[in-house]
Specification:
Number of domains: 1
CATH superfamily: Crystallins
Number of strands: 12
Number of helices: 2
CATH architecture: Sandwich
Length: about 170
């Protein structure tokens, strides 16, 4: 009698296992895509016209020399919650955009988060802050909009933020 109960339980477990295995075998895999961009305006779900805050791989004296960009940079427009990048699900597919330095020069292709040394604000109307932590937290540095003649202000990040920059926000 005891062996009959055990056999029934084992049969029920085997049937349950087979049902779960069948469901898992027919379920489609989740898809993921990852892209690298140098401007958050290149992310399809971010609406903006152009990036106007530039974060440079090098300090300002190395970033721009004789009026030319010598350092790779990333451009942002608006609030950037995390300099590592942004992700979004579309159904079962996850699409991720990672922010990297681009446009040639030193640091080209490097991930941007916690790698910037200087900032240039070319916004006509917007001031920005760059933050130590993702989500606009921790130590921050203020960058004023460009001057009355359209000149962009380039400034070194303070020592607490140099190579420790994780988010930026309209100020």
């Amino acid at each position: 009698m005891r062996s009959t109960r055990i056999k029934k339980k084992l049969a029920a477990c085997a049937t349950s296992f087979a049902a779960v295995a069948a469901v898992m075998a027919t379920a489609g895999p989740a898809h993921a895509a990852e892209y690298k961009v140098t401007d958050n305006c290149d992310v399809p779900w971010i609406e903006c016209s152009y990036g106007d805050l530039r974060l440079f791989y090098n300090s300002k004296d190395l970033a721009i020399q004789d009026g030319y960009y010598k350092s790779a940079f990333t451009m942002y427009y608006g609030n950037v919650y995390d300099h590592w990048g942004t992700s979004q699900y579309e159904g079962s597919s996850l699409t991720t955009y990672r922010y990297v330095f681009g446009n040639g020069g030193n640091g080209n292709g490097q991930y941007m988060k916690n790698n910037a040394a200087s900032v240039e604000n070319c916004a006509r109307d917007d001031n920005y802050r760059v933050y130590y932590s993702s989500g606009y937290g921790g130590t921050a540095q203020y960058f004023a909009k460009n001057g009355p003649y359209g000149d962009c202000n380039i400034t070194n990040l303070i020592s607490a933020l140099k190579n420790e920059n994780a988010s930026s926000h309209f100020a």
